[in-house]
Structures are given as structure tokens and as C-alpha cells.
Amino acid sequence: MAFKIYTKTGDKGSTALFGGARRSKADLRIETYGTVDELNAHLGLLADWSPAAEISALRQIQNELFVLGAMLATAPGKSLNMEPLSDKSVLRLEQGIDKMEEQLSPLKHFILPGGAAVISQAHIARCVCRRAERLCVALSEREEVDPVAIRYLNRLSDYLFVYARHLARQKGVSEIPWKP
């Protein structure tokens, strides 16, 4: 028998966490890992539009976001059936930021998102990442959340901002300064 995508178990507005506990689909934990999933989809589009040399790093981030989603989808007190994210992933993002920044001029003003579709997509992903981070912080104020989740999302939003600038430099697109 083939696996069916629909289970009908959520038809009344609840879903199961890993570990069996059921939660409302409007629960903050569900909203948090749903936003991480949305971020992952935006990164998929970003990777589709990115130069070939950049795709591997973006796919690694996508894989890490699946792990983060699993961490958030696991009921408190239950064990995760995989290796959780660690500070090693945060450090890898920092190293990627440092490498890209070596090629960039110092930022002297706020910049407007835009200049090319791929640059705008990096900024959209950054904004969704910030929302995921805010939700993760809010969840951590109610329930146990591995602190590496917040650090990872915080650093990933920085990475995506620098990646947008990196893409602009690669494409020869001038940054658009914000003029208040």
C-alpha cells in the first residue's frame, strides 16, 4: 500500500508533535516551526536564483532548518531522534559571514532591499528569519526551547543580510541607500 499524504488527523484543528502530544494548529510552537518551514521554502527559491557556487551553502542551511524544525516540533521532555543543531552550525554561519564581508565595503548607511530579484529574495528570507526568531524567543518564554535555536536564527538573519550584499557585489548592482 502506498503512503498517503493526507491523514485526516488534523481535520479538527490539531496536530501532533513528535512524541505524540497534540496541539492546536494555532499554538505558538506550531506557528514557530511553521515559520521555520516557510523560511526554508524561501531559501529554496533563493538557492534556485543563486549562483551555482553558492547553492551548496544554502542547501546546508536548508538541511539545518529541517533539524531546527524537528527540534521545535518535538514535545517538551521528549527526545529528538536525530542530532540537534549545535553551536558548530552557528560558528559555520559566522565564518560564512566573515568570508563574504572580506569582499564587501564597510556599511556606512542603511540600505533598501532590492536591485535584482535574487537580492530581494535574500532580504525576504532575512525578514522571515527574523520573524521565526521572534516567535522562537516568545516560545522560549513559555516553554523550554534549546537556546541554540535562537542563536542560529539570529546568526542566519545576519548571514542573509550579508549574503544579499554579497550578491549585489557579485552582480555589480549598487546598493540603494536609505535616505530619510
Question: How would you sum up this structure, described in words?
Answer:
The chain is mainly α and 180 residues long. It has a single domain, classed as Cobalamin adenosyltransferase-like (Hypothetical Protein Ta1238, Chain: A). 60% of the residues lie in helices and 6% in strands. The chain has helices at residues 28-49, 52-73, 87-101, 117-140, 147-171; strands at 14-16, 22-24, 111-112, 176-177. Strands 1-2 form a two-stranded antiparallel ribbon. Strands 3-4 form a two-stranded antiparallel ribbon. A hairpin with a 5-residue loop joins β1 (14-16) and β2 (22-24). α1 (28-49) runs antiparallel to α4 and α3 packs parallel to α5 (147-171). The longest helix is centred in the last third of the chain and has 25 residues, at 147-171. The mean pLDDT is 94.
